[in-house]
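Please fill in the sequence for the structure shown.

STRUCTURE ENCODING:
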């Protein structure tokens, strides 16, 4: 997403994880770096009253301490353009932070980064085992990409990092394949069910489920409670809002006939976003399920919505075509601004983790 102050595209983790004050009713659009500069937290000896730069709410001493602590804990920020590139003086200096050149970095699609000691990783299977230990992602669900090439396991002689010219300081992309993987499966009919409770104030509000279709890296069409059906493209449908006013509950459903989609449709991104409430966390007991209609008891995607509680939107997963009638479900979990009234921030977030360039 883009910082409204410095106008630079930043990772979601480079923004405050909570609202700037407890009284703010907006998603922070200042990155942490710009927020720290605006609040002048390097100079805390004065008695100046500090306010949210976006809505002018006054910050308490506790809120200032929390922001300062969040900044102190900021780790090395990834230069996304250099993922899959070996170390150079130029791209090291371009990164914001101190890069330990004895390490390699594994980067998830949501921007999360994990560090591994280069000299302790003897080969690709060992790297996968270390990823499983640190991230609890089974080896069979890991797709590792470096410099546009997928890292492969060899049964007889395992490939080493050096075989792929991976050097200390390199960044490797990790794509988590929840369904399909090396044995991509045929999925004909997909159902996405979303349900939620009204916010604590009891006001009617919607937690929106959207599906954005892409042709390669080009946006094609969206389905949401506003755009529920296109007669010229009858393979998908959105139910619109189904509201249960007496019980203060709501639900939505998206159906997709994957086997009928034109071959140029390569990705379907599933997104949750808050309509009027500032964050997803304002809704009571939200939940969802993504299933193959023929196997309703087998969830294709799991995501803890608590992880997106402080965000306006989250790109949960992508259903990606890997062959004729064959699809993979890939975990993303990228936080974002935006909602059904404003898809620009969501489309920019999707572009930051675009799967087309990584998988083709």
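FILLED IN BY: designer on duty
SEQUENCE:
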């Amino acid at each position: 997403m883009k910082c409204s102050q410095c106008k630079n595209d930043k990772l979601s983790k480079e923004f405050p994880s909570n609202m700037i004050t407890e009284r703010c009713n907006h998603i922070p659009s200042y990155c942490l770096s710009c927020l720290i500069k605006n609040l002048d937290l390097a100079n805390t000896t004065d008695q100046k009253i500090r306010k949210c730069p976006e809505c002018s709410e006054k910050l308490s001493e506790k809120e200032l301490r929390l922001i300062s602590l969040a900044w102190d804990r900021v780790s090395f920020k990834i230069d996304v353009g250099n993922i899959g590139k070996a170390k150079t003086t130029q791209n090291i200096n371009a990164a914001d932070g101190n890069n330990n050149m004895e390490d390699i970095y594994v980067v998830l699609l949501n921007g999360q980064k994990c560090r591994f000691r280069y000299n302790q990783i003897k080969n690709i299977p060992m790297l996968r085992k270390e990823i499983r230990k640190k991230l609890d992602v089974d080896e069979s669900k890991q797709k590792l990409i470096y410099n546009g090439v997928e890292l492969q396991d060899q049964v007889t002689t395992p490939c080493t990092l050096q075989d792929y010219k991976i050097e200390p300081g390199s960044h490797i992309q990790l794509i988590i394949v929840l369904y399909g993987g090396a044995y991509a499966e045929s999925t004909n009919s997909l159902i996405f069910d979303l349900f939620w409770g009204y916010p604590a104030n009891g006001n009617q509000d919607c937690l929106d489920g959207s599906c954005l279709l892409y042709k390669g890296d080009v946006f094609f069409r969206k389905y949401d409670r506003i755009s529920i059906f296109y007669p010229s493209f009858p393979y998908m449908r959105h139910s619109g809002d189904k509201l249960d006013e007496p019980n203060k509950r709501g639900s939505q459903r998206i159906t997709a006939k994957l086997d009928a989609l034109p071959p140029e449709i390569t990705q379907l991104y599933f997104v949750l976003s808050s309509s009027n409430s500032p964050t997803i966390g304002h809704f009571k007991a939200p939940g969802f399920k993504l299933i193959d209609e023929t196997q309703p008891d087998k969830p294709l995607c799991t995501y803890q919505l608590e992880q997106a509680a402080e965000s306006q939107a989250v790109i949960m997963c992508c259903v990606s075509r890997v062959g004729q009638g064959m699809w993979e479900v890939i975990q993303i979990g990228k936080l974002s601004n935006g909602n059904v009234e404003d898809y620009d921030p969501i489309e920019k977030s999707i572009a930051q983790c675009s799967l087309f360039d990584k998988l083709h």
